[in-house]
Amino acid sequence: MNPESGLSQKLAHGLIILTLGTVVLWYGDFIFVPLTWGIFFAFALYPVSDWLENRRIPRGLAIILTLTLFTLCFLGVLGLVVNQMVSLLGDIPQIGAIFYSKLAEYLEDISELTGLDVSNWSETDLVSLLVNPDNLNQTIFNTGKSLTLIGIIPLYIFLLIYYKDFFTAFLMQASSRSNEKIIAWAEDSGKVIHQYLVGMVKVTLIVSVLAGIYFYLIGIKFFLLFALFIAVMNLIPYIGVIISSALVILYVFLTTDTLFYPLLTLLVLWGIQLLENNLITPVVVGGKVKVNVLAVVFAILLGGAIWGVSGMILSIPLVGILKITLDRVPGLQPYGYLLGDEFPVHEKKENFLKLWRRRWAKK
Asked: Around Cβ 9, how many Cβ atoms within 10 Å?
């Protein structure tokens, strides 16, 4: 068999599998999104449940206690956020009036500088651009869908932890010739998930505290809401921090009479982001998910296109697990290396450049 035809056949099979997998994940998001979140939270909460089970508490009761504790903490934070969100919604008319007032001033300045007649944009025209019945219906539908998915996740967590021995036995039976490799892969994948989730929770708390202290000191009314918003959006690398910072800076700009506080907010948020990227995350999360920036950006965009916000947040640990899998499958190690962040050794790089130059000279 011709080696080139064999390579082409493998490439074609890979593209077909990738396409079909993407289609299945796209249309099956209602099933796979809560299942994936359930798997991740099961790995994160398993140590607590296992600790209770080792204290002679029945497994089912230990899992229920773990989920109850987690749910209470989540509802407590959610209650504080909802309280401030309701207050913010009550202030929207006043904030909107300030927005239109400042917008009119800037449009007038633009008209004087450019000679363009943009000062006749009415408030109704702007509202019609921002508020659309179709968008409102879609938002309500997506909200209801998200709440349904959130309600399914605890059930998945309970079942996944409860049947952990069942899944372990399945892996042992499905890999009778390479049990050690499969178990090692499962353990490493579990460590990636657990370390990433627990680490990101710690990072989220640290970032929210830093941002909350700053917002409180400059007198932001909804400092807790905006601090949590900044911290949660920070879970979406690169993109989330830009969106959240822009919205918060806009709010500071609308609620203050000077440009000093918006500029100061920009500098502070930028400083928190630098601190988080270069110190907090490397120390807290560690280097378990060693994936290069190009692969991370591509995974975020692909995950967002398939699963929305959930896909963007889950993209990094999923790529980390994919890299672990590729590194352990014979013949697929180069693809795992392509996802990693390890540069080639200097000597190998020099040899590669010499070989490339020789081939180019022959041509």
From this structure: 12
